[in-house]
Design brief:
Number of helices: 11
Distance between the termini: 54 Å
Order of helices and strands: HHEHEHEEHEHHHEHHHE
Radius of gyration: 19 Å
Number of strands: 7
Largest sheet: 7 strands, mixed
Shape: globular
Helix content: 40-55%
């Protein structure tokens, strides 16, 4: 019934972030709300050049275009599947999307007024190197900023999932993002920016409602296989998957009309490039 530690490690090694539509249904729809609050928090002047690192399907890029009136936005990601999704929706006169690595940004020094990243930095193998690259390509006095989910406490849809998964299978803790990504907290994020040489570093909590219409609306996105929790779920036997389904259904709060009212919190960090 349980995957076992060997299979858990295999799941971690092959985590996939490539199918845009599945990602959108899983967390993309909620990340857009966080992106709006993030761009409002930055409150940057119109007309700047922006770089969106780890742009995924383009949620943050789209929000920047809608709310910040930039001169141009470049979205960068390692996933061709995500980039194809973003290009299909957003490629235009003020945006374009390119493949690239956050640890070695393919741009010269001091090219952007704003370098941003949404829900991606913790997946970079060396986030310190990525933060240093953000500082390098931002103009002097430009802004480098990012946000990540509060996996440990604030991202309720995932917290309920992993707590239930761990109750049935203690080995599932190896995949729990709250355990795997200790940097997704205010102090480590702030230190990451300070170590990259940025000035006036601040961290802000962003919390948004994530209300699911019913249990199926909550459960179905996990079947898409995108990310650690869905990848783990799809590795289980049918019997184990049903047990997890039933335990989650019992544990999740319910509101009026069978809805499931949860919240999602992200931590945002910003700094000024020197």
């Amino acid at each position: 019934m349980r995957p076992g530690i060997g299979r858990i490690l295999a799941i971690m090694a092959r985590e996939v972030w490539s199918v845009g539509d599945a990602y959108e249904e899983y967390v993309g729809r909620w990340s857009r709300r966080v992106a709006e609050a993030f761009v409002h928090w930055l409150d940057l002047p119109a007309g700047g050049r922006w770089l969106d690192v780890g742009c995924g399907t383009g949620a943050l890029t789209e929000t920047v275009l809608a709310l910040a009136d930039p001169a141009h936005v470049i979205g960068l990601d390692t996933s061709e599947g995500f980039l194809a999704n973003a290009r299909a929706r957003l490629d235009g006169t003020r945006s374009d999307f390119r493949a690239g690595d956050a640890r070695s940004l393919p741009f010269p020094d001091r090219g952007f007024e704003a370098v941003v990243s949404g829900l991606a930095l913790n997946f970079v193998p060396d986030p310190g190197r990525a933060a240093a690259e953000f500082a390098r390509v931002a103009i002097s006095g430009g802004v480098a900023a990012a946000y990540v989910w509060d996996y440990a406490d604030g991202m309720a849809m995932m917290r309920y999932f992993w707590d239930a998964a761990g109750a049935l299978d203690p080995a599932a803790a190896e995949l729990d993002e709250g355990r795997r990504f200790p940097m997704c907290r205010p102090e480590p994020l702030s230190q990451l920016w300070v170590d990259a040489g940025m000035d006036h570093v601040t961290v802000q909590a962003i919390e948004v409602p994530t209300v699911f219409a019913d249990f199926d609306d909550y459960w179905r996105p996990f079947l898409g296989g995108q990310g650690p929790a869905p990848g783990y779920l799809m590795s289980l036997t049918d019997e184990h998957r049903r047990a997890l389904h039933n335990l989650l259904r019992d544990r999740l709060p319910s509101g009026s009309d069978a809805c499931i009212p949860l919240t999602a919190r992200a931590w945002a960090v910003r700094g000024i490039a020197s």
